[in-house]
Automatic annotation (TrEMBL):
Residues 118-187 form the Apple domain. The keyword Hydrolase does not apply. InterPro entries: Pan_app (IPR003609), S_locus_glycoprot_dom (IPR000858). This is S-receptor kinase. Keywords: Disulfide bond, Kinase, Receptor, Signal, Transferase. It comes from Arabidopsis halleri. PANTHER family: BULB-TYPE LECTIN DOMAIN-CONTAINING PROTEIN (PTHR32444), S GLYCOPROTEIN (PTHR32444:SF89). It holds the Pfam family S_locus_glycop. SMART domains: PAN_AP (SM00473). One of its GO terms (molecular function) is kinase activity. GO terms for biological process: recognition of pollen.
């Protein structure tokens, strides 16, 4: 989440190994207490303790907008809060249901405009995006982005690839529908 880059006094840690995949954070200021909760209405909220007011202050929450809703634009759809309508199809795809799409319901997503041709089709680069749901993804930490691209090009079931780490290392390959993609204007 781009806004997390602005948090001060916070050390973030991402752990990935055979036993777990986890994100943790901690405040470096020992005088700050915080808690992360999930409300009954589905909001993930981070609170900080305000000692002089003796109360918890909401510091952060998600979802922030409609694009934070899971699968808002369906398979092969991109949600972008800076466009109208919010749902758009990846290049080479079109709305699955034009009538629902015109009513601004993108939940059914998009379908290919033409039949897939493994020997002729190419990948379209998407930048400033939240990666799709990783349910159908495979991670290989040993590969760089060039090897990742080659591996994906040689597998007709591959629908997308990306770096596993924002710093440019590792490989994530998707072999199913791409869902829950979101555009970020910056960050």
């Amino acid at each position: 989440m781009p806004e997390m880059q602005q948090w001060t006094n916070v050390i973030s840690n991402f752990t990935e190994n055979r036993e777990e995949i986890a994100y943790t954070f901690r405040d470096t200021d020992q005088n700050i207490y915080s808690r992360l909760t999930m409300s009954s209405s589905g909001y993930l909220q981070r609170f900080k303790w305000i000692s002089n007011g003796e109360d918890w202050n909401q510091h952060w929450y998600a979802p922030k907008d409609r694009c934070d809703m899971y699968k808002k634009c369906g398979p092969y759809g991109i949600c972008d809060t800076n466009s109208s309508p919010e749902c758009n199809c990846i290049k080479g795809f079109q709305p699955r249901n034009l009538q629902e799409w015109s009513l601004r319901d993108g939940s059914k997503g998009c379908v290919r405009k033409t039949r897939l041709s493994c020997s002729e089709d190419a990948f379209f680069w998407l930048k400033n995006m939240k990666l799709p749901d990783t349910t159908t993804a495979i991670v290989d930490r040993r590969l760089g982005v060039k090897e990742c691209r080659e591996k994906c090009l040689n597998d007709c079931n591959c629908t997308a690839f990306a770096n596993a780490d924002i710093r440019g290392s590792g490989c994530v390959i998707w072999t199913g529908d791409l869902v829950d993609i979101r555009s970020y204007p910056n960050g």
